Amino acid sequence: MRVTVLGAGDAFSSGGRRQSGYFVEVGSTGFLLDCGVTTLLALKTIGIGAERIDFIAISHLHGDHFGGLPFLFLEYLYEKPRTKPLVITGPPGLEERVRDLYRAMYRELSERPLCFPLCFEELIAGQATTVCDVQLLPFYVPHQEKHVSFGYRVTAGGKALLYSGDCGWNENLIHYSHDTDLAICECCYFHTQAPFHISYPTIARESRRMGCKRLLLSHIGREVLERMDEVTLECAYDGMVLEV
Ligand SMILES: [Zn+2]
Ligand SMILES: [Zn+2]
Question: Which one of 10, 34, 54, 64 is the catalytic residue?
């Protein structure tokens, strides 16, 4: 399994970092974990063709995690014409929100059919699904008040990966990181304590309880960047490639 960090920044693109997106390759299968507004930019900067994406798993419906989808649709319409289906998984409400976003951004185009089948799979926390031989197990994480936010445990090619999405600290991160080869965990804050994002001292303390072989902090916010000299856990950066 190879993971390329397309964006290690938060919604504010703190420090000039791009927004959330990870390109994961397992054998000949490629997929995205999240698709922030800057994801197509990242793919082209790094040199990953959008045709290599077989499916997309969305953690939650915040713009820095799914706002890049309309640009990918355009890419598949004009630049890299696509005929194979595109599966997008995510929390309940996924299809409506993605279609609303596409309509808001490209109204006339959105009224025409796409040149490829777009298949939405709205998932339920705790119920695994398999797409292209990749098992996705979504789990609930605390991030929004009314709407569901997921983390994912991804299993493929004999490897396991935990992706926290955006969340406050929660015990699911302990449970689902058990025996994973890599855990990508958000770290938005340093001194701010909030129930919907993780602060560095918390993850530094709790990381000892996580059962992952390697922990990578991402979705790095301004507070963390300002105090990087105090950070000893491994942090992601845009373009980072990890062989898992
Ligand atoms: Zn975010
Ligand atoms: Zn969010």
Answer: 64
